Amino acid sequence: MQAYVYKSQRKPDTYVYLAKRDDFEAIPASVGESLAPFAFILEVALTPERRLAQVDAAQVRANLAAHGFHLQLPPLPLAPVKIPRIDGRDD
User: Fold this and answer.
1) Which pLDDT score, from 0 to 100, does residue 91 have?
2) Which residues face 27 on adjacent strands?
């Protein structure tokens, strides 16, 4: 399965995978309006062996087959870790 990847010019680290090149009609209007404009990044073959850095390729394929698009949002920030002080004070 081919996928066409676009980067949102409005939201950092947000990508849209499309089943058909430039088929922005597949994206719900409310989502498309908040993320557009888009910049084409790459065309990729999503084979069962393909691994993607941020998302599960099988989930992307399933979303493309069912909806015609997959939305990749930026990862959630990690919660800060509180490290106890050596001197025992709470700051």
Assistant:
1) 59
2) none
Q: Are 38 and 8 in contact (CB under 8 A)?
A: yes
Q: Three-state secondary structure along the chain?
A: CEEEEEEECCCCCCEEEECCCCCHHHCCHHHHHHHCCEEEEEEEECCCCCCCCCCCHHHHHHHHHHHCEEEECCCCCCCCCCCCCCCCCCC
Nearest to 24 by CA among 57, 62, 71: 71
Q: Left (φ > 0), alpha (ψ -120 to 50) or beta: where does 88 sit?
A: left
* Residues recorded for the chain: 91
pTM score over 0.85: no
Q: Tens digit of pLDDT for each residue in 7-57?
A: 999 999 999 999 999 999 999 999 999 999 999 999 999 998 989 888 889
Say whether pLDDT at 78 is over 90.
no
